[in-house]
Amino acid sequence: MKPFKGRDIISIRDFSREELIYILKVAQKFEKQNKPVLKGKILSTLFFEPSTRTRLSFESAMNRLGGKVIGFADAAVSSAAKGESLHDTIKVIEGYCDVIVLRHPVEGAARVAAESAGIPVINGGDGANQHPTQTLLDLYTIKKEKGKITGLNVGFIGDLKYGRTVHSLADALSKFNCNLFFISPDSLKMPSDLLEELGERGTKYTETDDLNKVSRYLDVLYATRIQKERFADPIEYERVKHSYVIGPSLLRKTKKDIIIMHPLPRVNEISPNLDKCRQAVYFKQAHNGVMVRKALLALVLGKVK
Ligand code: CP
């Protein structure tokens, strides 16, 4: 494994299976540990796009480990609104803190920021590209709820074209010999280049627009929001926005121990009636973000041996 101290977290592709397993083990240790190992350290959260979970769970993680947080949750209140480049923003802020979490609408922005910065940069989501810390908390949730990751049948449903959480997680699961099922309307299918990569790695996958055809096989169903903000054509959004709504009736057609995940926020793709079912783990999933982000901050700041 490459050392984690000083490392950027930009894409899940940058991590081997062994490294992913190691991060999950460290996160597990942080389930109950809140020693102030990051006392004296400062995290900058630079969010050029809206967020609830990613920003606040990073801030919670830093606070719980004794560190401090600065940053902004709205690009309109930063000097980006005056035309400052991302490079210049990062060059300035690296002098104010020890680690940066960046969310940005432009694909590749996190990589650009990491190249500009002399301190670790963590990608909190870049456009429709990658969301690696979400993937780590998704893997953590799967491991915790199912007891394993390897060999599971995992279905993804909803916006697979623009869904960065899907792109990152599908990539990671391909390292664990999972069988993947992609369920979407035709216009929101997985990008062909990502499917090609999965194929080259020997990952078995199935594409369909009908959940009923594959629901009985699934150990995990990962639902996603149809993301209005990513559509160039509002008419196309209106056409597909209610494509799938999952409720308790689905559980009559699945394995008893399936888990239903969602990176959240949801709009109407999961009925609130499902929330009380034991198979619905999406709120636990969001809470797991704190453990995983504690682990990542401690690792890149060199506080885990
Ligand atoms: N899952 C996720 O990234 O949520 P936020 O957009 O609220 O951060």
List the helices and strands and how they pair.
Blueprint (H helix, E strand, L loop, with lengths): L16 H13 L12 E6 L5 H12 L3 E5 L13 H8 L5 E6 L4 H8 L4 E6 L5 H15 L6 E5 L6 H10 L5 E5 L8 H9 L4 E4 L11 E4 L10 H7 L18 E3 L20 H19 L5
Parallel strand pairs: 1-2, 1-3, 3-4, 5-6, 5-8, 6-7, 8-9
Helix pairs in contact: 1-5, 1-9, 2-9, 3-4, 5-6, 5-9
Bound molecules: phosphoric acid mono(formamide)ester.
Phosphoric acid mono(formamide)ester binds next to α2.
Account of the protein in words:
This protein is α/β, with parallel strands linked by helices and about 300 residues long. It is built from nine helices and nine strands. The strands form two sheets. Strands 7-6-5-8-9 form a five-stranded parallel β-sheet, with helices on one face. It has a four-stranded parallel β-sheet with strand order 2-1-3-4. Helix 1 packs across helix 9 and helix 5 crosses helix 9. The radius of gyration is 19 Å and the shape is globular. The model has no long low-confidence stretch (mean pLDDT about 95). Phosphoric acid mono(formamide)ester binds next to helix 2.
